[in-house]
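Issue: ligand-bound run for iron/sulfur cluster - logging full I/O for the record.

Environment: standard queue, default settings, no custom constraints.

Inputs:
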Amino acid sequence: MSATATRYQRSDFQSDQEVKWCPGCGDYTILASVQNFLATLDDVDKEKHVFVAGIGCSSRFPYYMDTYGMHTIHGRAPAFASGIATANPDLHVWVITGDGDALSIGGNHLIHALRRNVNLKILLFNNQIYGLTKGQYSPTSEVGKRTKTSPMGSIDYPFNPVSLALGAEASFVARTIDMDRNMTADILTAAYGHKGTAFIEIYQNCNVFNDKAFIQLTAKDEKVANRVYLKHGAPIVFGKDDENGIVITSTGAAIVKVADVGLDAIHVHDVNQPDPSVAFAISRLSHGPYGPTPVGVFRDVPRPTYEAEVTRQLVDAQAKQGPGDLGDLLASGGTWTVT
Amino acid sequence: MTQDTLLADPEVQHRDRIVIRFAGDSGDGMQLAGTRFTDASALFGNDLATFPSFPAEIRAPAGTVAGVSSFQIHIADFDILTPGDAPDVLVAMNPAALMANLADVEEAGLLILNSDAFNERNFAKCGYDVDPREDGTLDQYNVLSVPMEELTKLAVVDSGVRGRATLRSKNFFALGLITWMFGRTLDPITDWIDKKFGADQPVGKANTMALKAGYNYGITTDAVHYKYDVPPAKMPAGTYTNITGNKALAWGLIAAAQLAKLPLFFGSYPITPASGVLEELARQKHFGVKTFQAEDEIAAAGISVGASFAGHLAATGTSGPGVALKSETISLALMMELPLVIVNVQRAGPSTGIPTKTEQADLMSAIYGRHGESPLPVIAAASPGDAFSTAIEACRIALKYMTPVILLSDGFVANSSEPWMLPDVASLPEMPVSFATEPNGEDGEFLPYKRNEFLARPWAIPGTPGLEHRLGGLEKQVETGNVNYVPENHAAMTELRERKIAGIAKDIPPVTVEGPENGDVLVLGWGGTYGSIRAGVLRAQQAGYNSVASAHLRHLFPFPANLGSVLRSYKHVIVPELNRGQLSKLLQAEYLIPIESYPKIMGVPFKATEIQARIVATIEGDRT
Ligand code: SF4
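Outputs:
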């Protein structure tokens, strides 16, 4: 990211449509983060960006971006986006989705986009609630949550979106928090630089239907103790004066006192590790934004993109068979002539 | 023909047409034997039509009636229209195949039986209490029992294939015998075997050896009294190929992409009987065709809409259950006004129904099967070869009117084949597409829903500077395309979408009538029933019922502009359909005239004789 970028301003990415999220919604911060980030990309013509969304509060996002965009069907954004990216690999395709959109009705499309590694940047706004339909529990709501559709408490065990993505062969997985603009900017930069599907879970506050769901990660007195920043190449330490650290044992990741084990024993984070097992273990430190919760980039490994492979096969086929000739095709099954 | 005449003339029987059915266990290679004989007959110059029939269960137990697979071919020295009503010759590789097909065989027809499979075990599996060859069951037929397995085993001894695997070549033995009976040469078949299996590979050698053994069995054995001559047909001059509907449809999409100068994108999910389209297109990557096998039907549609937004000629293929899943996405494409062709190769439903059997019961689903007011064009292919130009027509409408188009095929059109005269590629009409490149608003802004004279909106693809815009499923403001919930605007947009599609009626050919322009009976059909209806009407006319005409609809929505007046020119309008009368209902609603529905819902096509009988019954009914 260049600090002296001049080609675009944030305003170049703001559409003329009035933003209609509830006042105080975390979506505003994320919108600003994304617009600010795009304005730093001097080398990308803005008409190359396409924002694709499903249905939900977050999915109104494309209407507020002065880029190409599609507001599609509940849960299906990864499918539309995959078609756009495969048709034209020169485009930069962004998927904006939510916890209900991506993990409930659209779970199938999400996991298949991840395994295919289409060059998509998927931003999952996780507010642990259905906002647009006014407050029903979602697939990331905690067990016991009381909502209009779970008056006696939710009995649905929630997904851990980062674990899910890692299990679905994702090549890039990260987590950030709406209010942490610096971390979001860093992660957007890393995701943008990654060739293939980048999955970013963003803890997003829905102040109307699920306010303070992430309070343990945002409250002044708690966030230092609970934000476990993942930095590539550095030992994973957190808490006041970095007093706590993460070790990887045969049963998973565990929190230890650095003073007890020594800094050398603390796990050094490696986003490029081909095997996702350690990243998965780290993702299991918390099951939701409760207590010490890892944030940052979990995984960033190279793998051929789907559309590059599609293009390669077309090129190979043409090299072997020449460009297709319709007359030859029609005659390819054997012909006879009647005079 | 009686048994006596057959035996009295053991040399060569001259026939103008004949129907042959190859039947056996689904592992017996009957589809392969049938298609090879079809190609040999096509190269010989016969007109022909074929009809493969597959068991509904992939893993039905061997030797049972449920596991029987068959392939029927109708060859003739004249222009024929259907795969034939009743086989004159039945090849049955086991008792189950005989049991499943015997009732269809012409009286005094010829049964060629693989006698090695006629044993107690196999009788028990299909439910024959005693050997049907010995209890009088087959008395009214001519029976030729040939120990095909034994002879095949002996024939392939030197091929390198050993043990039970040698029996796999027995379909080629049967094919060789039939090839001899009909005076065809083996060359096209042996060439094909060499290409497919390798001339020096054991399997290739075994198949050729079995094929020749079957052929020579005919020459040298006294047992075979039957030899037929069906001369080449006098077909219009041209170059022909034998083609199935799925292949023709795939080729039509490729041709349309070339005519529109756009890359073709096909997003699909495997489903019987539509998978053949995806498979064929996946083989044609050198045309720049991008095929995308999606994770499910919904994704296949969404991916294709995405590709359309990005400027490809996009299509998706499926069958009835898949259309149900895609319907929300089709409505979105309609709202976004993006071109998209949705191919529905119909099968017997509802639900999983009978996937391998044909039906035309998705017409209402195609026209009305969406939420909201959501009109879109619907067209249907009439025959295997017709699927080529129907696919081009679907693409033409989609691109010109910026709309999804539903293209109906069916299991019969998809899998059956016919000789198809190759079109002159150079004469196919180009259908150039121009993407928007400049703002179109008075103040230099881009209005994505500003319409042209056909009420189509501009197609501005991502990557075009200055035309950034958002499409979506929410109701749009007229012209700007911005989200808009104003009541008058919703009414205006709904009407605009409706008028756009209705206007296509001015842009499609009028329906043409074959036969008298007015009279007693018009038989009106659509889709894959074309051949049966034409053949039935011709038979009625030959039988002296001259006041009968037929017409066939390619465009089902909107209807051709002259359809109402055509219908009013006949005393009776009979509409045969492989459903419970869906087109009949549409016609009655649209034109307020009585329609005589002739529904059939058995998973199989109409027989020409059924259509003929229906016509005769109507006319005779008037006379009494
Ligand atoms: S309901 Fe919640 S998520 Fe939706 S806009 Fe309002 S605050 Fe934001």
